[in-house]
Amino acid sequence: VQVAESGGGLVQAGGSLKLSCVGRGFIFRNYPMSWFRQTAEKERELVASIGKFGDKTLYLDSVKGRFTISRDNTKNTVSLQMNSLKPEDTGVYFCMRTYYYEDYYYSLPGDYWGQGTRVTVSS
Fold this sequence. Notes:
Blueprint: E1 2-6, E2 9-12, E3 17-24, E4 33-38, E5 45-50, E6 58-59, E7 67-72, E8 77-82, E9 91-101, E10 104-107, E11 117-122
Parallel strand pairs: 2-11
Antiparallel strand pairs: 1-3, 3-8, 4-5, 4-9, 5-6, 7-8, 9-10, 9-11
């Protein structure tokens, strides 16, 4: 199982970035996919998730209305469009396959967390 994230960078507050992730080594369309982030202040947290068919989206409360997750099962990709970025969005963003249970998404035990892609939002 491999995922490769890209699209991070340095942006001013109020700006936008689009993160992308390609999955390899597993049947991409069989899994919900999610973006997590690791910040200096918090442990890794779930930012956004999307069901296998592009339904059942879920967002962290603080990013609702600003971030949009989408997927393309023909290309094995999942994206995160991030608008109106804030300094508190700064962190390393990870893409992971997940499973859905009781209205929430969880990473699969044993899956490897890669290096992610770093997002820095300056004030």
